[in-house]
Amino acid sequence: LGSSLQDALKKLVGAGRIDERTVTEVVKDIQRALLQADVNVKLVMQMSSHIKERALKEEVPPGMNPREHVIKIVYHELISIVGRSADIPLKPQTIMMIGLQGSGKTTTTSKLSRYFQRKGMKPAVVCADTFRPGAYQQLKTLCDKLNVPFYGEEDNPDAVGIVERGLAELEKNDVLIVDTAGRHSLEADLIDEMEQIHKVAQPDYTLLVLDGAIGQQASEQARAFNDSVGISGVVISKLDGTAKGGGALSAVSETNSAIAFIGVGETPDDLEKFEPDRFISRLLGMGDIKSLIEKAEETLSEEDIDMEAMMRGRFTLKDMYSQLEAMNKMGPMKQIMQMLPLGGMGAKLSDDAYKVTEDKMKGYRVLMDSMTDEELLNPRLIGSARIRRISLGSGSSPDAVRDLLKYHKMMQNAMKGLRGGKFNMQKMMKKM
Ligand code: GDP
Ligand code: MG
C-alpha cells in the first residue's frame, strides 16, 4: 500500500490547485492502494467519496500545500474509523478470546496474561480449545513459563463444562482469560460453541483476534461473531510482518468495534497497545512519505545552494542557475514551490515562472556561456548593447536574453521576500 498510495499523493505535489480532475485521479489511486491493503470494497468506496467531497469543498488551510491537505483528509477519514482504541480496564474481569483457527488467540492469551501481570494483576487462563490436537499442551506450556495459573482438561471434548469448572477453580485470580477453539472457517458449530461458552463465562470482555494478513473475509468473520456473542474489542495479530491490517480495519468498521491491541511477534512480550496514529501511518506508508521529504531536504543542501550568500542579497545569475539545477534534482520547480509553505514566494512568482523545463535550462546555460564573468555576477550591467552581443554570440534571440534577465529579476525579488521573512530554509523544510 505504502508505495502506491505514496505515488498517488505525489501526484498532488505538482497540482497547483486541487481541481476535480486531480482529485478524481488521486482518489482512484487511493482506492487502489486501500484495496491492495485489503480494506473492504464498500468501505473504500465510502471513504473515497468523503475524501473527494472534502478535498474539493474545503479550502486548503494557509501554510499547507494541497498534498498535505489531502493527506490530512485521508488520515482523518481513517481516524474516524479506528479513532478510538478499546481500553481494557485493569480490574477483576473475565475475558473471552474468539477467532478462527490460527488467528493468534492462544498466543494473544499468553500476551495478555503477561500484560496484566506487568500491571500487577493476577491473571489466570482456562483452555476451552478441545478441538485442536495439542491445544491443551500449547497453552499449558505458555502459562507455566509465565507462572500463570492454568485450567484445562486434556482429552475431554466438553468445552462448556471445562469453562464452568475452570472459572470456578480459578476464582481467586482477578483476570480470567478463556481461550477458545477456532475452526478453519465460520462453521455453524463454532458459532454454537461460542454462544454456549459465552453464556457460561459471562465475559466482561469478548476479544476477537484477527490475523493482520486476513483479507476480505475479515468483515464477514467479525459480523458473524458480533451477531452471535458480540465483540467488545479486536486484537490484530501478526503485524510484525508485511501485513498492513486493512482487512481488520474493515472488520472494525463493519462491527463498530475498536482495536485494543496489536500483536507484533510470537513471544508473550510482543503485544502493543493499539495506537490509531501509528496504525494509520503504517497503513498509509507515511514513514515513506516522510523519508521522501527528508531526501528533498538533503538534496537542497548548502553545497547546492549558497543560501547565506543569497540571504545577504547577492544573487547572481550563477546563483540562480545553480539553484535551478539543485531544484531540478528534486523535481520540477513548481513541485518544489508547492512544498514550500511560502505565501510570499509563491505569490511573487507567476505561473509561468514555474515552467523551468530542461530545455529552458539548456537555453539559459547557452546564454550564460556567452556572458562575461562580470555580467554573470552583476546582471544589471546588461543593457541593450550587451543583450545584442550575447544573443549573437549564443545564437539565440534577444528576447531569450531578456527572458533570462526577467526570470533572474523575479527570482531575486522572491529571494528578497525570503530575506524579509527571516526564516531558515533548512528548518522550514524539516517542519514539513
Ligand atoms: P490460534 O489458533 O488462534 O490459537 O492461534 P495461535 O495463537 O496458535 O497462533 C497461530 C500461529 O501464529 C502461531 O504459530 C503463532 O506463533 C503465530 N502468531 C500469533 N501471533 C503472532 C504475531 O503477532 N506475530 C507473529 N509473527 N506470529 C504470531
Ligand atoms: Mg489456540
From TrEMBL:
Claim: Chaperone is one of the keywords in the record: no
Residues of the Signal recognition particle SRP54 helical bundle domain: 1-82
Record: residues binding GTP: 99-106, 179-183, 237-240
Listed GO MF terms: 7S RNA binding; GTP binding; GTPase activity
Enzymatic reactions: GTP + H2O = GDP + phosphate + H(+)
Residues annotated as domain SRP54-type proteins GTP-binding: 92-285
Gene3D superfamilies xrefs: P-loop containing nucleotide triphosphate hydrolases (3.40.50.300), Signal recognition particle SRP54, nucleotide-binding domain (1.20.120.140), Signal recognition particle, SRP54 subunit, M-domain (1.10.260.30)
EC number: 3.6.5.4
InterPro entries xref list: AAA+_ATPase, P-loop_NTPase, Signal_recog_part_SRP54_M_sf, Signal_recog_particl_SRP54_hlx, Signal_recog_particle_SRP54_M, SRP/SRP_N, SRP54, SRP54_GTPase_dom
Domain AAA+ ATPase: start-end pairs: 91-290
Keywords, ordered alphabetically: Cytoplasm, GTP-binding, Hydrolase, Nucleotide-binding, Ribonucleoprotein, RNA-binding, Signal recognition particle
GO CC field: signal recognition particle
Compartment annotation: Cytoplasm
Main localization, broad class: cytoplasm
Family indicated by similarity: Belongs to the GTP-binding SRP family. SRP54 subfamily.
Subunit details: Part of the signal recognition particle protein translocation system, which is composed of SRP and FtsY. Archaeal SRP consists of a 7S RNA molecule of 300 nucleotides and two protein subunits: SRP54 and SRP19.
Function: Involved in targeting and insertion of nascent membrane proteins into the cytoplasmic membrane. Binds to the hydrophobic signal sequence of the ribosome-nascent chain (RNC) as it emerges from the ribosomes. The SRP-RNC complex is then targeted to the cytoplasmic membrane where it interacts with the SRP receptor FtsY.
PANTHER family cross-referenced by the UniProt entry: SIGNAL RECOGNITION PARTICLE 54K PROTEIN SRP54, SIGNAL RECOGNITION PARTICLE SUBUNIT SRP54
Record's comment describing the protein's domains: Composed of three domains: the N-terminal N domain, which is responsible for interactions with the ribosome, the central G domain, which binds GTP, and the C-terminal M domain, which binds the RNA and the signal sequence of the RNC.
UniProt protein name: Signal recognition particle 54 kDa protein
Organism: Methanococcoides seepicolus
